[in-house]
Amino acid sequence: MSRIGYQPPDPIGHPPLYDWPPRPVATLKWIVTGLMFPWGFFFTALAVVTWRWLTPAASTMQSLSPAWMGLIWLRNAALLTIVAGGLHWWLYIRRSQDLDFKFNVRWPATDSRKFLWRHQVKDNIFWSVVSGVTVWSIYESLTMWMWADGRIPRAEWGSAPVYLGLLVLGVFFWGTTHFYLNHRLLHWEPLYRTAHELHHRNTNSGPWTGISMHPVEHLVYFTVFLLWWVVPAHPVIFIMTGFFNGISPSISHSGFDEVVLGGRFRVSAGDQFHHLHHRYFEVNYGNTPSPIDKLFGTWHDGTPEAHEAFKDRRRAERT
């Protein structure tokens, strides 16, 4: 480990999906072992379970009601707490692996004026639950209501299993593309000062940092649901969209490249690509599954060469 923190040994690369000539075998392997394993499969399975047992009946959702919308809020808050709270307990309270695989050698701030109550984790929990889960649940509830009431196009597993199966993968690509677009918008100076700066106070992120954002940013960020207002889909897809954008950031912001279980079993966790954005602000606005940063020259692969190129670009922009 360096004095800064853990640095993965290999440069960050783009997925083989974007190689030319095409590499179908490598692409399929990446989809299964890179995109989906383990967290993609986890959130897909969780979405199925949630639709079957943790979501109000379609007949109930045909009319907007604070009662069933409140249940969706409680469900989302509970699931976020289980994942983010569990990671925080394992990595930051129990400190089960100390600094092993941690990107930043510092621990979360406990006496900083940047955060509510001068405490980073309490601040992050507040914004994530009070604002984040609320806005997420409103978008999800509106989408569920319009689907149940026949106001938006529908697709059913019985009649379109292949289409919906592909749409499961589409959630990840739409989510990462939408993230790049809204993230660049939020770095527009007026929006950055008004909203996005709150998230960027977390230069040293943790599991609760994921959706710790200003309410204005939440309103922009969760417009990811709007695609399903025009594209035929199913509630499992809506729920997956919420999980991918609402819960998975707690994993990618965990601050650790890997979580070690049982002393030797490792699970991929933190996203170095996005960690570099929190460190340097002007790189890696998107995610690697949709490598749009490559097109616009803001890709930072974690190497010293990439960092020198970033500094040269920043100097050129300021002259």
General description of the model:
By secondary structure, the protein is mainly α. The protein has one domain (16-318). The chain has helices spanning 24-36, 39-53, 66-93, 120-148, 161-186, 189-200, 215-221, 235-246, 248-252, 272-280, 292-296, 304-318, and strands at residues 258-261, 265-268. A two-stranded antiparallel ribbon has the order 1-2. β1 (258-261) and β2 form a beta hairpin. The longest helix has 29 residues, at 120-148. The two termini are 35 Å apart. 38% of the residues are buried. The mean pLDDT is 96.
In short:
This protein has 319 residues and is an all-alpha fold. The chain has helices at residues 24-36, 39-53, 66-93, 120-148, 161-186, 189-200, 215-221, 235-246, 248-252, 272-280, 292-296, 304-318, and strands spanning 258-261, 265-268. It has one domain (16-318).
Q: Which word captures the global form?
A: globular
Helix content: 55-70%
What characterizes the major β-sheet?
A: 2 strands, antiparallel
Low-pLDDT windows of residues: none
N-to-C SSE series?
A: HHHHHHHHHEEHHH
Radius of gyration: 20 Å
Number of domains: 1
What number is the mean pLDDT?
96
The total count of strands amounts to: 2
Instruction: Determine the structural class based on helices, strands and strand pairing.
Output: mainly alpha
Strand content: under 5%
Looking across the biggest beta sheet, what order are the strands in? 1-2
Through-space gap between termini: 35 Å
Number of helices: 12
Ordered list of secondary-structure elements with their pairings:
Blueprint lengths: L23 H13 L2 H15 L12 H28 L26 H29 L12 H26 L2 H12 L14 H7 L13 H12 L1 H5 L5 E4 L3 E4 L3 H9 L11 H5 L7 H15 L1
Antiparallel strand pairs: 1-2
Helix pairs in contact: 2-8, 3-4, 4-8, 5-8
